[in-house]
Structure formats: structure tokens, C-alpha cells
Amino acid sequence: MRYVGGGAVAGTVLLAGCAGSEDGGDDTGGSSDTGSTGGSGGSSSLSEIEIILSSTGADTVDPHQSAGIPASSVTTNSYEGLLTRDPTGEVVPALATDWYRVEPGQYRFELREGVQWHEGGELTAEDVQYSIRRIIDDDVDITSDRQGHVIGIEDVEIVDDYTVDLVSDGLNTAIVTSAASYLGIMVLNKEWVESNDLETVSTEMNGTGPYRLVEFVEEEYAVFEPFEEYWGEPPAFEQVTYTGITESSTRVNQLLAGEVQLIETLPPADVSRVADHADLSVTSRPSSRVIHGVMDVTVEPWDSKEFRQAMNYAVNNEEYIENVMQGFGTVSSQPALPEMFGYNPDLDPYPYDPERAADLVDESGHAGVEIELSFGVGRMLLDTEFVTAVAGYIDDLPNVTCTVNELDLSTFGTLWSTNHDPDQMDFFAVGYGHPSYDASQTFQAIVLSERVGRFGKVESDARDDIQNLVDQAARTEDRDDREALLQDAAVIAQEEAVWLFLHQQESVYGIDDAFDWTPRNDELMTTAGSRPAE
Amino acid sequence: MSNEPAPVPQDSPGRTAPDRGPSAPLLRVDGLQKHYVDDQGLADWLLSNDPGRVRAVDDVSFDLYRGETLGIVGESGCGKSTLARTILGLHEPTAGRVEFTGTDVHEQVATDRKRFARRAQIVFQDPSSCLDPRMTLREIVREPLDIHQVGAKSHRNETVADLVERVGLSTDHLERYASEFSGGQRQRIGIARALALDPELIVLDEPTSALDVSVQAQILTLLADLQAEFDLTYLFISHDLSVVRYLCDRVVVMYLGRVAELGPVDRVFEDPSHPYTRILLESTPGRGARAGDRKAATTDIPSPRNPPSGCRFHTRCPVVVPPETYGAAFERDAWPGILEYSRQVRAGRFDADALATLADRHGVDPEDEVALERAIRDRCSIPQPLTDEIAEDLLGASLAALVSGDTETALAMLEADFASPCAATAPPFVEVGSEHRAACLRACEQDGER
Amino acid sequence: MKDELVFLGRRLAQGVVVVWGVVTTVFLFRVISPTNPAQLMAPDDATPELIQQIEQDLGLTEPVLNQYVYYLSGVLQGDLGFSYMTNTPVLRRIMFALPGTLELAAAALVFAVLASIPLGILSAMYRGSRIDSTSNLVSLGGVSTPNFWLAIMMVLLVSVQLGVLPTSGRPIGLVDALTLLVFQADPNGLTSWVAHMILPTIALGTYFMALLFRLTRNGVLEELGKEYVLAARGKGLPESLLMYRYVLRNSLTPVVTVTGLQLGGLIGGSVVVESVFAWPGLGTLFIRSLNVSDWPMMQGILILVGAGYVLTNITVDFVNAKLNPQVELA
Amino acid sequence: MISDRTRTSLEREIRSNTVATIGVALLLSMLLMAVFAPVLAPHDPTDQDSSRNHQPPLFFGGEESETTRMIDGEIRTVTESNAGTLAHPLGTDSNGRDVLSRTIYGARTSIIVAFSAMAVSLVVGTTVGMVSGYYAGRTDSVLMRFVDIVLAFPALLITLAMIGILGNITVTVPDPLVASGLVSDRPTHAVIPVTITLAISSVVWVWIARVARGEAIAAKNEEYVMAARTMGMSNLGIIRKHVLPNSITPILVLATIQVASIIIIESSLSFLGFSGTTLSWGYDIAAGRDYLATSWWLSTVPGLFIVVTVVGINLLGDLLRDALDPGIQRGGL
Amino acid sequence: MTESIISVRDLTTRFFTDAGQVNAVSGVSFDLYGGEVLAVVGESGSGKSVTGRSLMDLIEPPGAIVDGELWFHSPELAADLTDHPDAVDGDFVDVRAVSPAVRRSLCGTEFGMIFQDPGAAFNPSLTVGEQIAEAVECNARLARGETYGLSNLLRDVLSPASSFVSPESFERAVDLLERVDIPDPAARADEYPHQFSGGMLQRAMIAQALAADPTVLIADEPTTGLDVTIQAGIIELLDELRIDTGASILLITHNLGVVADIADRTAVMYAGEFVEVGPTDRVFDHPANPYTEGLLGSLPTFDDPNAPITPIPGNVPNLLAHEMPPGCSFAPRCPAATDECTATDPELEPVATDSSHRVACIHADIAADAGSSSLADSTLRPIDTPAPERGDVAYE
């Protein structure tokens, strides 16, 4: 049995968070374009593009060994799932042309015929079966990082060469999500994987997608060339390069210098430089990440609901978003995002009311407490700035002292997801994303989960109430009823101040006008559907 | 390093002059050796970069009697400073022993340096280095008193003042730093410090060699006065024969780590038995001596790291003993020429170019080997032919080899056929007069004749 | 010849001891570091059993001495282990990052040497002149300015304000650029390489330039005061020849030594400079590995740099001994 | 400790060298700044007000300039004018904190780290150097090979590795000036970054040890040490009374010069994000990088303070070296 | 032997140090005759070495020759320099007054310098042979009137085939090494200075000084630091060379024994001034200056071990201008000093019994016509007279 580096804890979770596992999700995120469009006379023969990720480059090109967005942005150029989503989140066919439930617990996918592997041969049902087993079964090759993203599938049965059945133990509504998610099932060539060692599988690719890998250095870059025998629309670029650059000014400068065509996470301070550039534009879309403060309710003062509420009243979200973040964010009022199914539009954010906050602190009996707001540097837009601001607001309360504890990602990741010691970290800001766009997942994964959130660590009426509502929603067929249940849960979550509600950040991209690319709701920086601008 | 046993007669109590009082020597040095640290283990080889550098001392023995001044003279590399420091227990000897009033110094030093320190002290050569520049005069002279807790603390300053005045310094300067004194004054301080513990023996390691003559005289007179006043025994190390003659009762002449000659100053300097002592005396400037046969001795000293075999002086010696194989007249007639010849061959004076020049100068055809040989003999003043036939044959062979261009063979033949016993045997130490001994084969001969 | 071999053998043997010490130190770093690699390598929601299993498979449950023996024998066979993060061989990543750092360090060294030595000589020859005082001021600034700040200021001025040079990245390596030039007659690669090199080179090289300037100037001044220079003047040697044969040659010996030995310093300095210029080299790799506690990677880099330093040291010693008749090969 | 002659030569050096005097003055003002930071800083360095953020330094700004903001989900270009004010003579950062006050407090971090790292290094380095140089032989060989091993790594790399081992240790101590009630509204505690102090010391002691060893060897061969031995002084006594006092001047000169290196290393570490405190020059330079195009002063000001401090130390070091010890070599990073 | 080669007048060299002005040489005047050995003897800090270096024009900042004339006997040069009337007096040329280039060529050819520390006077990174050959080559080029420009330098530096030193010069260098009795000269010429012992290197130094066939050899403490046997060899060599080449030797030393062995005349220097000049046997046998007397009395006499030594009290003054005693600088240490001594600084005057013997002491028995022989109005009338032929004189 081989073990596989899952990437840093920090790497996985913070980069993307875990994908939700349910189908659907409203798509309301409006994208906005700005900047000069005068540069349309630029080169129309854009044939080579370089895309800059704001993290390090992909740590591996084996999709089953990684559950992060950056790596997926890279691997989805070569590897495909059974299904996929368009930029707006709509599920569309990929390697499967048709999919339907045969009976409860058995979902059938009819595979596309004649799909060629990059290194020769045709896709068969055996490859699909092997790929899924490689994820869900520890005994097949590796222990995959994606187990949590492929929920409920117990086995795969081959019906014929081009048909597979996914077997689960009940009515599994998440199967389509898993099949369509870039963090879910990706299909690898069974024979190739089995005949190569893990190092090769980690650094080379043999997929079915539009581009094939030419060169790859883990955590640095990946270079692709078109795969001429691709089953779908022929690839539009002669060469596609993905590079990871964590330093934002470097990304901006490279874009400004015309060296790259698309950058992720354009910092607000540099937006105007890009927007003012004749050949560049800025485009953005609300991110799927909820930025919030986690409070460990197992310890004082966080066990006090009043104190938690006080924190929410103390922070002037409007102001810091406006000034510190130059408006690139939206105040959040509840765990779910407006784009999500189950979002409660009737809830207003906690108002900024320092007096009330101070009173609540007094009420909680924790006046004079000293707290420390931790965060891991580098994963959230303007993180240092806004965390500093948030801590500043709390510190301004007459009866609370708050300092910032800036941690590197490794330490933060360890403290967060593997070492739940509240003595070391009981209050921290984090961004958590959900490409599934379903509030139930937010509740399940981050409010109630012991592992990720902290609210679920202690039995309480509120926790049970939310849990019941979420469970009930999962069993409810009717969409509106389900939504109402989740909205009720949101009310409890806000009242209980399960988090320090902060904001929803904006995903801002800088892009070369010669490159026609639309930001996606799921933040994936794929080349699918993009082409040189007309 | 040669280790053939050499008979080393002891300076036994029975031989001491009656005026020396108690018969037991204050200090006895017996077969003392101190070598370079060459034998490193693998670990040392890997870990360290350079071996220690110590001038070697080889098989040195002498006695030092109470109240006398024994001089040790020699040129650089003769090991006289190493000897002094080994005697004081600052270096561990490789072999041999040093006894101070009958007890082994190195055992004593290893167990209780302090006790030995109160009895033997040293005055160093370098006035710029012998005093800690960060200490005042008072602190420097007081230091030994403090270490040994001599007297009550309050009394120590008085002792210091006495000492300082005794060596001719002003007590007004007690709070001055060492660096504020001149070279001569610093030597006075060094002497005061050595005197502080009221020792019996003071080793004077070239105490005046860095001083100007006018100041040197001050120190010398001071030393003489102190010796009389405090009944001191001096071991006086110097390279200056005049100074040794002025101050010392007896003298040890050292050459490349070994004792060449030992005896009362007057006898050694007026009637030297070792050719090295003779050369040394002749070289002393201001005596109106002119170059005689000492020329070979005045160019270079061999490295003490790699001393010559046999008698260490034989490479510079003007009176090297000839091989015994040849007739009686050989030494007088042929030997100087052959010595000169072999020196010149060794120095490369007869390589091809030189031979051409030689031929040119003598107006002979460079191809004419016989004429060339003659020219060489002329140049080295070798008689033609040698009276000893065997010697003549052997020399002729060497010359022939040389003229034919084979310098190496020529030299090898010379070394085999005309090897001096001086190069092979380290001469024993023999009596050449009353309390006067020397290590020279010539001295042995005389000894034997007597 | 024998002397040389003995000298070289001894220095190499000593170098091996130091490198062994380097490897051991680096091994100990990992052992005493608080990181549990199994936790890093395991998936997020790994069970304690799984983590234990991984620990066992990594050999972490073995006695430290055994681990040490495995590590040492691995290093001896050129196996620096696997990265905790990507599970790929450490050497693979280092080999990718190495050219960037070497090119940068070499360029900085060349820049430092070319700029400092002539200036140092001029400064010493015209001591007290305007050129001397200006150079001294520049060198004072050079040794006093942190390279990362200099880098940022250059980016601010040259790139942001003037917009002339690229500010970051290493789009093409020297070898590729030259290949392009030679085989495809395409100078763009080289142009781009040069353009991207300029700012990092200056940022990294300035401190060493200032250092070498001071060394050169002091060396020449010291040499000018030597008695043999006086003596040579006394025998009527032409001034130009005197400057070359007596002053320059001798005063440059320490400069050459320091230049060789500063390679370590250059690599250390490149850690920060690389980070400013998003330069894919050992420095960025090290920082990134440090951020995620990827000890095998850090160990690999440290061993490589340490061994490189030792080797450079020996080479400099040897070359120095060959060039300088005073140094005995013993 | 300093003899009269040393003092006079120092005085003469100071008199004859105006440039150096300026340097010393600069350094002294930095030291004063660090010590009296709570008094001298016009504002609490952590006090923020995002409504006044990105204010330029005094005499800068004022003209209309365009910035981008997102308003109602749209990226818009707005025209703003933001002029420097006397209240914030060196401007404000992205959270509206006073740059001057932060920089003054940053001096504290640098100087605390520099001095404590140097103190640790001096104690360890001098001890090792003295023992190694005085006892020589195998002790020396082993210690010096260990020194070689440390020196084989670039200083910054080994410092970073040490940080990886030590984690982030800080000690918070009450600020005496604030505790005494002299000033209020300033941070009540100062953070001492123990990790980087130790990490830096782990390299610097080696530099000190090498010089100390050389000095010990030189002093050991002086005749006054021999004299002390013949007087029966113990080895430790000799080291304490003779070797150390006579070696300490060049060691201190080197230490002074190396404080400059430490400050540069410290700021490099903070720049890379390993400071342990957010009140440090390197940290602010790094934070300002993202605003280079719009708020140039954020990175520029703290950097200038580093340069001024290091120039001051270097000038002082040159001065000391010229006055006390012409032969000393400068160690590199 | 009777012709003056060099006439030094009022030579004054000072050093301007941080500690103050150092009057290293204060108004020294003397003549050096053809083929003689003039010893300048003094204790450390007496200014004797600076005197030698001043003659060679080797004073570097912060030092400077502030005053004085150095007349050199050179009829050829005097004829060439007719346009510099100030610098010419008969056959003599004032080296201090000619252009630096002329001065340098003069120093390189007519004056040879033997330094005290040959280890420091040889470039450690060039072979001994090369360095001596350079001196030969410089002289040869000067004789040929060649100049050495930048193009020559570039060619010599860049082309391995080109070299400043010609093979002939190198051969001559080997000959010179042989001349100074260095064994195996051809091999030793290819060795570096550190491979030579001190005595050998001093011989090589002498060989280098001989390269230009100098008229004057300035030997600055040539035997200091050498062992007595080696010292004796060097002194012999110098004596031999004087006889062979006819060069005059200015021997600077602190060793009275060496002086007695070789010097024809002796000048005693104290605190930057000549206090006594005269034939060696006169000076040694009948010292006229108390300092000279004290110096001789300080030495233990080898052949009379019972003779007492009488040290001079006190220390040699340092030469800092503001710390110099007033009047006669020896007065504070002088057993015969009177108040008058601290008031006037005595000039060198001939002693009554011997006009070749001059002394600076008001208590000395000065010749009656002294005072009129002041230098002010004299041009180049020799102020010294050569020593009579001397036999072997021992000074005891």
C-alpha cells in the first residue's frame, strides 16, 4: 500500500475547502467587467497563454492525490470526469453522455465512445471503475485525498465496455455532484497507472482532455500542448502554461509586462493599474468562500453566546470592507452566501454597535478578557489587512483586548485541522469555500462539523436545532420546503453567533484582452471554453 | 632524528669546583629532549590543520649550581628558548628529566605548579609582549603575590613598592599601564615581577636582546646587582657572546638542539674546543677578526626541522675529520680541496654551463675532459695527483663522471668514498679541560691523545 | 606533484568530515523539529491508525540511530529522500531550482567583481579624491542596505515609475536562451534572460560589490605601503608595471579568496532576493518548504549548499596555494 | 576596561572623522528612539482607523488621483484626494496606522533582537573561542570543525532552519515606560521575538568564536601569559585575567560591526514573515510591497530607517576598528 | 678615495602623524667619499634609517623631506642640466632640486639600497631572480633611453611570450647571485623569497642593489636580525664589494662592533642629529661627545670581561617635536650636562686635535676657528675629510 502526500493540510483546505456533495445550487453571481476595452486591436493570434495561480503551482498532477483548486485548475486540462459544469455551474456531459438512476442505490453512466487517451488507446468502463475505486478504496493503489468528495459510492459495476453503474447504499443525491465536481471523480487510464510507479503518475499525465502535459515541475509550473485527437471542441491554444506565484505584486507586474494572460487574485490596490492598461481588463465574481471568524466554544469566553454576539456587534464590517478592502467584499450575515441554495435574504448583518458589544461582554462576565485572533497568511484577499482591522475593532472595546496572531500556513493548518487544541488557537479567521452552492453543506461541514468548525464541538440546543433542520432538509424532496428549512437554520446560526460573520470576498482576475475567458463560480481557472478573443 | 647512543658524562657533584658551596646542583638537566609534534593520529590529521611549532632540543644535559650564572648561547634555531621553557615546565619534554633540588620538575608542575613557581621564575625577551598591556605596574608586580597569597593583602602593596624601587623604577608610576613604559623600564618591571616570589632560580630568556645598547647596560648592571643582593641563580640565555661573557660564570654553547660545548666562560671563550664555538667567536663583530676559513660557515644555517646527520655542525664545519682510510698526509694535502670540491658539486657549481664557463676561463677546450678535470682541481685547490693512490683513483672517477655531465654520479661517488666520520657519527661529549667539555670528534682525538 | 596530491587528499578528507557533519546536523534538524511528517502526509481526516501506519512506513518508529544510518546511506547514494508535500524525490525539485540560483549567484558575483575591483583600484590610487569619496559612500550604502529593500526600491523606481525592466520571474534559463540563440538564431530568449536578470543581479550583488570594493581598496592601499613596493620604485621599475606586478597581483589574492568564499553568502542572500523577484530558485524553494515544514526538502537544500560550500572552499584553497608561492602545500 | 591610550586614540579618531561622528549620532538617535519609543511615537502604532488609511507623508499627495473601488458589485474608478497631514508626518498604512509610530516601534524590535542575539553570541562565542584557542589541541580541532560545519551553511539558511525547529516563541514583557504611567495609550507590552534571536545567535556565535579563538591564540603566545603560567596561575585564571581582557577589544569591535549584519538578517527574516511580531521594519516593508504602486512610503520609510541604522553601525565599526584595531577582518553574511 | 661623492647639507625630514610632528632628521650635513664606508650609528629612534631613506627619496606620506640639499657628484648629469643653474654646482647636481623623473633614474642607478628586512623588501609572489633581473632590466632600458608605456604593459601582461625581463637580464641576475656567494645560483634564482633563509635573502638583496652598478650603496641595518655567523658573512661581503666595485657604502646600523669592523668613518646619531663624525678609530678611541662615550661604555667588552660597563641613564627620547628637550637633546641624560646645554643646541664643529673629527657638544674641545665654518655661506666646500688609511682597528 502506498501513501500519498495529501499536500499540506493547509494546502488542501485553505486553497479550496471541501467541495459540497449535492447537486444544484443557484447561480446568481454576477460577473462584472471593467477597465478599458480600447485595446481590442491587440493581437488576435494569441496562441500561447500563461495563467498565473495565486498559490504555488500544482503539487501533483495526479488528481486523486489532491483536492485543491489550483491543482485542479491544472489537471482538468488533461483529465476529465464523467460530467462537468459550465462556468455558471450547470452540469454538462463530459466522458459520460447520459446518466440516470436505474434504481435507488444504482446510478448508470453511459460513456462516450471513441475517447482517446493521450498516450493511445480508448477509454473503457474498466478505466472508470478503476479510477473510482482508486478514490474510494484504500486498497486500490493509494489512499486518496478525494474520499471526502466522493460520498456514498460503495462500488462501481461494469455493465459493458461503455456503461458503468455506481452503487450506493441509499438514495444518494450526491452522485451527480461527485461525478461533475472537479474535486470528484476524475478518470485515469487503469493500465497506465498500474504499469507506472507513483512518482510517474504524480508528475506525468495520460488523460483524455483537450491538452496534454509537456512539462511539469511540482509546485512550480505545468506546460500543456493541444491534444489533437480530443473528442470535443478542438483546443484553442498552441500552448498553455500554469504557474503559481504567491506574491501578488509579482503577478500584477507580470500581467502588466504582457508576460502572462490571466492572473488570479488581483489585489484591490492594483486594480486600477490593470484596468488603466490599454490591453488588459479586470474581471471579478463573488467568491465561493465565506470569510468568518471561528470561535472554539469549548473554552471561555467563546462558550458564552453573549460574548460571541458581542464580537459580531463590535466589528464594523461595512467600514473595513469599504476602506481597507476598497469595497472588494460583501458583508455577510449568515453562514450561507447569497449565491447559495438556502440563503436567507431576510437576515440583516449584525449592525456595528460597540456600546451594545461592550454591554454584552459585561453581561457575559468576561470583561477585561484578552483574546488573540489568529489567521494563516496568504490565502484570503487582503487577509493581514482585514484581520488587523477586525482585531482593531474588538480591541477598541473598553473591556476586551485583542491582538493579532499571524501564522504561517503550515502552522495554521496544523492547528486548525489536525490539532484542535484551543489553548493554542481558539479564535481564528478563515475562508472556506463551497463549490456545491448548497447551504446544507455549509452547515454540515463548517458549522456542525467538529473537524473544521468549532461550534459542533459541544452539545447544545442550538447545535441540535440546526442539525435537525439540516437533516430534515436532506430528507425533503420539495425544493422550496427544503430552502425554508435551511433559511430557518440560518436564523438560529445568526442568533447563536456561531461565527464572527465577516464577509464574502470578491474573486478578482486580471486578464489580457486578447484572451477570452469567463470567471467561473467555482473559481476553477480552466481553459475549457476559453479561446483567443475575436 | 638520529638516536644513536652518545656517551653523555654527567656533570657530577664530584667534579664541581669547591667554591660552589653545597655539592648538589640546584638544577639538573638530564638527557632532555623536546621534539616536534609530528606523530599525529588519523583523527588529528582529519581535524586539525597544522602541527605545533617548537624548536627541537635533543639530548641536553647540564647542571646548574646555586649562586652561579650559566649562559646558554647559540644562534636562532638552536633550541635555547625551548630549553628554557621546558626547564620551567612550560613544555612537556619528549624524553629526559629536569630536576630542581632533586625533584622532577615536570612531576612537580603537574601536581603543584605553585610550589615550583615560588622557586623558579623567568624574565622574557620581548618587552612589548612580556607585560599585560591592560594592567598597571602595581597590578603586574602584585599579581604573583596575589596568586600565592604572599603576606597580608595590605602588606602586598608595600612589597610591590619595595620591589619597584629596587629595580630602579619610581613608585610614582605604580598606576601607569605597561604600555606607557619604555622597553628598558618594561624589562625592569618584568624583573620585579620575577623577583616578587623571591625565587632561587631566574631564567633570563634573552632579556636584553631587544634593547638599545645604552639600556642593555642598565639592565645588565641591575641583574648583576640583584644577583649579589638576593643570592640568585641565573640561567641566562643569549645570542650575544659579549653579554654572556660579561654576566656568566659558565656557558653552554648550543647548536641545532644539541650542546656543542660546555664550560667556564673564560676557558670556553679563550680556548674553544668546538669549531662552532670558534666560528661564533670569530664572527662576533668588533673584534677585528677577518675572514679566515670560516667562509663556509657564514652563509647559511640548516633548518632545525631537518638537522644534518652525525655531528650537526659538519655541514658548516671548516675542520671536518677526513675519512680514516687514506694516508696520514691526506688530511693536510688533499682533504680541504676535496671538501671544497664536494661542496661545489653539491651546490651545483659544475653543471654544464658552469663547466663551459670554467673551460673558457682556463682557456681549455670544453671537450677536452682531462684539461677540464685539471681546471676543476685547480679551482678547488686539489693537488695533482693526490699522494694517496686509492684516493686519487676514486677522486678521478668522480671527476670523470662530473666532466661527462653526470653530476649525480659524481656526487654519489664522493659521498661514498670520501665520507667524513663527522657525517656519520654524533660525536660524544668529552672532557677537554677542567669542567670543560665539548662534543667534537677532534676533541675526542685530543682526548685520546692525552 | 606529490605535495599537491597530499594537500588535496588531506583537504578533501577534511572536507568529507565537514560534509559528514553537515549531513548529521541536517539530520538532527529533522529529528528535533516538532513536525510530524506523518500528519503532514496524511489526508486531512486521517484516522490516528492511518497516521501511525504512515509513521511506521516512513521508518519514524525506528530508533533514531537506525533512521540516521538509513538517511546517511541514502545521501551517500545520492538519494535525498522524498518531499513530504509532493511525495516526489527532493533531488528532482532541487535540480529544477538549482540553475536559477546558480545563474543569479554567478551573475551577482560577476557584477560585484567587475564593478568593485576597478573602482577599488582607482579609489586607492587616488586616495582622498572625489572618485574615492564617492565610491566610499556608495560602498557604505552598499554594505548597509538590505538587499530585499534595495530590490523593492529598484522595482519601485525602474519598473513601476519608469516601466523599463521586468520586475520578476525567470521565464527562461540561460541554457535554453543560448540554445535558442545558437540553434534557432532567436535572440529573444537571451534578451529576455538578460532583462530579467538585471534587477535581481544588482539587488543581490550590491552588498558583495561594496564588500569587494573595500577589500580591493584596502588591499591596494596596504600593498602600496609595502617595503618591496618602495624597493621596486627604488630600482626604477616603470610605475605601470609596478602597479600591475607588485600592487595589483598581491592585493587581489585576498579579494579572490573572499570572492570564492562569498558564494555561500550569495546563496544565503538569494533567499530573500529570490522571494522579491519570484525567482524560482533554491531560496524560494527553501522558504516554501519551511512554510510547510517540508524537512526533507530543506535538508536536501542545506546538504547541497553545504557540500557546495565545502567544495568551493577546498578549490579556493588549492587554487590559492597554486597561485601564491608563499602558501605551502602541506 | 579601556585604557587611557585607547581612549585618547578614540577621541582623536572621533574628532578627526566627522563622517563617522555623524554615523555615531545617527546610531545614537536610533537607540534613543528604540528606548523611548512610547514617548517619541506620536501615536499608538497599533491604533487603526481605516477611514484615514493610505495617507501620504507630510508635503506629499494632495492632488486628485484615481483609485479603484468596488461599489455595489461594480468596479469603479473614483477620484480622491489625500494629502499628508502633520498628525501623520510619514503617512498611514492600509489600516490607517501611523507609519512614523510603527517605524519608531520597529526600531525597538530590531535593536532588542540585535542586542540580545549579540549578547548570547558574545557569551557563547567568546567562551568557545577562548577555550578552543587557549587549550588548543584536540579540543580546538573538534570545536573548530564544528564551527566549520556551521559556517558551511549560509547564515540566512541556517537561521531559517532554526526557526523551523524552534517554532514561534515570543516573550511579552511590560513596557516600563507605559507601566510607570509616563505615557498612556501605547501598547502596554513589548514583544521580544525569542525565536529569531536564538536563530540568529546560532550563527553569530560562530563568527565571534573564530575571532575570539584567534585572539586567544595570539594572547596565549604572549610572554605575559607564559609569565602567568610560571607564576603558577591556573588556566582558567589566566583566561579570565589575561587572555580575555586582552582579546575583548577586537571581539567587541567585531561584535559592533556584526550588529549591522544582525539587523539586516533580522529585517530579512521579518520581511520573509518570520518576525514573531508585527512591529518590525522588515514586516512593514513586506506589507507595503502590495501597495508599491499607490502608497510608496509604506515600504520606503522603514527601509530608510534600516539603512540609517546600519550605516550608523558601520561607521561606528569603522571608527572603532581604525582607532583600536587596524587589523581586524570584516565577516560576511 | 679623496673625492666626495655625495654632499648632504641640512637634510631635514619630518613625519606629520596624528600624535604630532616627528622630527626624524633635523639638519644633518655630511660628505660621503668615493670608496669609503661611512657608518651611521645610533640607537633605535635616532633617525638613522630615515636619513638613509631620505637619500633614496623613499619617504612616503605622512613623512616628507622638508629641507636640505643632496649634492651628487655626476659631471655628465651636471652638463645635461645647464638649464637648471640652481641644481648644479660644478660637477655636482642637487638631487633634491631636479625633476622627479631625473631623481628617480638617479636613485635607481647611482644609489643602491639594501633594506633592513629583506623579507619585506622582496615581493613574495615573484621569484628572486625575476626581481633582481627587473632591476637589471630597468637599468639597461634606462641606459638605452627606452620608455615603458601602457602598450608595453599590455603586451607584457597579456602575451605569455612577452616579458619585461629579457633573458639577458635574467642571466645577469644569476651572475649577480653568484657574485654574492649564493650557492647554486641558477636554481635559486627561480625560487621565491620565502624559500630563502634570512642571510641568503640579504645576499640576494645586495645582488639586487648591485644590479645597476651603483656608485653608492645605502645599507640600512643590513645585518639586524641575522645570526652572528651570518652577519659576519654579510659584512665581509660588503667589504669585498666595496673593494671590488669601488662603491661607497653608507652603513646604517646600531651595532658598534660591525661599525668597528668595517667603517672608515663613523657618524653617531642621536635624536635626529649627528652628534659626532670622524674616522672610526678616532671616534672609538677618543670619543668627543659624551653620548658616544656613554654608548661605548655601555657595551660589555668581549676581550676584557672584567671591565665594568657604565650605562647611560634614562631613555632615548622619542622624536615628537613637542616632547624634545630644549637645547642639546642629550642633555637630560648627559653626566656632563650644565645649564648651558639646555640653552643652546650645539652644532657639529671640528675638534681641536683633528679637523676630520667633528663633534656637537659645547663641552668638547672645539677647534679655535670653529664658528666661521658655518654652512650658510659655503657652497660645496667639503665639511668632512676622508679617513686616513686604517689598519685593523678594534675598539676595545
Structure summarized in a few sentences:
The complex is a heteropentamer of chains A (534), B (450), C (330), D (333) and E (396). With 534 residues, chain A is of the alpha+beta class.
Tell me about this structure.
The complex is a heteropentamer of chains A (534), B (450), C (330), D (333) and E (396). Chain B is an alpha/beta fold and 450 residues long. Chain B is built from 18 helices and 12 strands. The two termini of chain B are 32 Å apart. In chain C, 78% of the residues lie in helices and 0% in strands. The mean pLDDT of chain C is 86. Chain C is globular. The longest helix of chain C is centred in the last third of the chain and has 38 residues, at 239-276. Chain C has helices at 2-32, 37-41, 48-58, 64-76, 90-125, 130-144, 147-161, 174-184, 188-224, 227-234, 239-276, 282-291, 295-323. By secondary structure, chain D is mainly alpha-helical. Helices cover 64% and strands 9% of the residues of chain D. Chain D is built from 12 helices and 4 strands. In chain D, a hairpin with a 2-residue loop joins strand 1 and strand 2 (74-83). The two termini of chain D are 29 Å apart. The model of chain D is unreliable at 326-333 (pLDDT under 50). By secondary structure, chain E is an alpha/beta fold. Chain E is built from 14 helices and 13 strands. Chain E has helices at residues 48-55, 75-80, 100-109, 118-121, 128-144, 150-158, 167-179, 185-188, 198-210, 228-245, 256-262, 280-285, 290-298, 339-343, and strands spanning 4-17, 20-33, 37-41, 63-73, 88-89, 92-94, 111-114, 216-220, 248-253, 265-270, 273-279, 349-351, 354-359. In chain E, the strands form 2 sheets. An 8-stranded mixed sheet of chain E has the order 7-8-9-3-10-11-13-12, with helices on both faces. Chain E has a 5-stranded antiparallel sheet with strand order 2-1-4-6-5. Chain E starts with a strand and ends in a 37-residue tail after the last strand. Chains in contact: A-C, A-D, B-C, B-D, B-E, C-D, C-E. The interface between C and E is medium-sized, with 24 and 40 residues.
